[in-house]
Amino acid sequence: MQLYSKISGIGSYVPENVVSNHMLEQTLDTSHEWIVARTGIEERRISSDVESSAYMAIEAARKAIETAGISLEEIDMVVVGTTTSTYVMPSTACEVAAGLGISGATAFDVAAACSGFIYAVSVADKFIRCGEARCVLTIGVDRYSRLCNPEDRNTSILFGDGAGAAIIKLSDTPGIEYTELGSDGGKSNILTVKNKERLPYIKEGDNAYLQMDGQDVFKSAVSKFVELIERVQIKKGIHMDDIDMLIPHQANIRIINSVAKRYKLPQAKVFLNVQKYGNTSAASVVLALDEAMQSGQVKEGSRVLMIAFGGGLTWGSVLATL
């Protein structure tokens, strides 16, 4: 008997604190016009001290569970895509499970930067297809505002905080049709964040803020997005006309527009919310998916292609009928 997995509920959470470009003008050598022209970002949400990755993930998960109409007892696995865990251990997934009151479920984090949610969904899909799980809570969450140097205009303008969650369930009919993951550790130097060494090994002046070669990241992201789209078209024998909505990682509007232009995709078929949230890393794709569904631009039965690219380097895609 063929087993399938399907997305059955979505939820998201963003902090209340809004930081606009005009606010950043007060502390950085930048302007609203400069930021919008180069990134498309107008504002972003910044987490408070109490809004940890686990806190935001739990809030998003509660909404996804409610949307899916399931009980906590049905969840047998929690997979969290994040690179901003509060602790080395426990994992954010274990924090989430405890916070929701789930006991006994498999729980672990996936560290794939901005591709984290795509990785989590792919893992959930495989566990369900092989009969090892029936209902998986997948989450993408990050708070990169804590990783960026507030005095660095090249990085601090880009990132915001947030979380998104999806319930992936065993299904009699196809839902998640195809997933693909990839990485290239040989190019890891273009987007990195260092861990601070613990005492007594802290090095004076050690820079643990996010470091990024923006130009190389831009070129690599466009190249990988195109490659992911080409591969899903070939492997599934489809054309982009067969897709109702492309939901790309919301990192930079110029990356997204470059890909849309290559495939002659109309604006109505490429979802955008980077202007409101900036780059929320692992939360980006699922946050966009939730908003697309809330706005009615994506509905039950819609066929969506989600693609992401992040530090590692990592990348991935999910083709799914909702």
From TrEMBL:
Any Pfam family: ACP_syn_III_C
Domain Beta-ketoacyl-[acyl-carrier-protein] synthase III N-terminal: 108-185
Active site (UniProt): 114, 249, 279
InterPro entries, alphabetized: ACP_syn_III_C, ACP_syn_III_N, FabH, Thiolase-like
Catalysed reaction equations from the record: malonyl-[ACP] + acetyl-CoA + H(+) = 3-oxobutanoyl-[ACP] + CO2 + CoA
The protein's enzyme class: transferase
CDD domains: KAS_III
Residues annotated as domain Beta-ketoacyl-[acyl-carrier-protein] synthase III C-terminal: 235-320
Record-linked PANTHER family: 3-OXOACYL-[ACYL-CARRIER-PROTEIN] SYNTHASE 3 (PTHR34069), BETA-KETOACYL-[ACYL-CARRIER-PROTEIN] SYNTHASE III (PTHR34069:SF2)
Predominant cellular place of this UniProt entry's protein: cytoplasm
Descriptive protein name: Beta-ketoacyl-[acyl-carrier-protein] synthase III
EC number: 2.3.1.180
Lineage: Bacteria, Pseudomonadati, Pseudomonadota, Gammaproteobacteria, Kangiellales
Sequence segments annotated as region (ACP-binding): 250-254
Subcellular location: Cytoplasm
Provenance organism: Kangiella japonica
Keywords: Acyltransferase, Cytoplasm, Fatty acid biosynthesis, Fatty acid metabolism, Lipid biosynthesis, Lipid metabolism, Multifunctional enzyme, Transferase
NCBIfam families per the UniProt record, alphabetical: fabH, PRK09352.1
Gene3D superfamilies referenced in this protein's UniProt entry, alphabetically: 3.40.47.10
Quaternary structure annotation from Swiss-Prot or TrEMBL: Homodimer.
Pathway given in the UniProt record: Lipid metabolism; fatty acid biosynthesis
Function: Catalyzes the condensation reaction of fatty acid synthesis by the addition to an acyl acceptor of two carbons from malonyl-ACP. Catalyzes the first condensation reaction which initiates fatty acid synthesis and may therefore play a role in governing the total rate of fatty acid production. Possesses both acetoacetyl-ACP synthase and acetyl transacylase activities. Its substrate specificity determines the biosynthesis of branched-chain and/or straight-chain of fatty acids.
Family: Belongs to the thiolase-like superfamily. FabH family.
Domain notes: The last Arg residue of the ACP-binding site is essential for the weak association between ACP/AcpP and FabH.
